[in-house]
Write a structure and sequence with these properties.
Length: about 270
């Protein structure tokens, strides 16, 4: 340990009453034993950073809500068995407007050399909330330069529903609700417009912060059609981001759900 002034602890010395991570985690993964407790996962670090912002009563940064955006966020579907090669492109997407074509191999994005899908996600993670990214693709025997223009709000198109880190955000923003956008056929049957919010509650949490929605009267099968004054169509991920950015812990936001044919007014606590 480095010594500080006489009688004062060194700034590099760990206080004796605070446990260190090296007592819990190892430098290598324990593949033959308990692999999960043998490393610090990215989502655990993200959980901690989100809690810091929430405890400070701050708006959540978008890159913490939508970390490591998949290429599909900008409309690119990459092949699983080739280096950063585009298999298909979603119509009218950011990638389509940038001029990407099926079969292109993306050599660099924002100056980042690419080999895998994870490399693309890393480049997008480091991208601005609004702005442009240069890209270089190999198309046939030639290389071509493209510009990817990222509009404000592009990160919210990232699908975070199945990410482990989203569970903590569900506790903060929706009180433990697991939501899914109602399919067009179901909307037609229930006479809900295609452009309107219709998020079916698939699961209602029962413990800790994830029980807040249940305690407030939300039920599995309810369809959320308005919340915090917003009634336009959005995904669960978009709603979580909106609530974390616009509302602070301690607030209660008004929500309207369809329960069968009945409209029920409820209040959802922000945590």
């Amino acid at each position: 340990m480095l010594a500080g002034k006489q009688g004062a602890p060194s700034p590099y010395q760990t206080p004796v009453n605070i446990p260190t991570l090296d007592s819990k985690y190892r430098l290598e993964l324990d593949w033959q034993g308990k692999v999960v407790p043998s490393c610090v996962h990215c989502h655990q670090i993200g959980d901690a950073l989100r809690i810091v912002h929430r405890n400070k009563n701050e708006a959540m940064p978008t890159d913490l809500i939508y970390p490591m955006p998949a290429p599909e966020t900008i409309g690119l579907i990459l092949a699983q068995d080739a280096a950063a090669t585009i298999e298909s492109i979603q119509k009218d997407s950011i990638g389509a407007r940038a001029g990407f074509e099926s079969g292109d191999q993306i050599i660099t994005l924002s100056g980042q050399p690419l080999l895998s899908i994870a490399d693309v996600s890393w480049a997008l993670h480091r991208a601005p909330d609004i702005g442009s990214l240069p890209a270089v693709v190999r198309r046939g025997n030639t290389e071509k330069s493209l510009i990817v223009n990222l509009p404000l709000g592009w990160r919210s198109k990232s699908d975070i529903a199945r990410r482990v880190g989203t569970w903590g955000m569900r506790g903060m923003a929706t009180g433990g609700l697991l939501l899914e956008d109602l399919a067009d056929a179901d909307r037609s049957q229930r006479q809900i417009p295609l452009e309107a919010m219709a998020l079916r509650i698939k699961h209602v949490g029962e413990y800790g912060t994830h029980a807040a929605a249940k305690k407030s009267g939300f039920l599995k099968g309810d369809v959320v059609v308005e919340i915090a004054g917003v009634s336009g169509r959005m995904t669960e991920g978009e709603l979580i981001g909106y609530l974390l950015r616009k509302h602070r812990p301690g607030e209660k936001v008004k929500a309207t759900v369809l329960r069968g044919q009945q409209r029920v007014e409820l209040a959802l606590p922000m945590q």
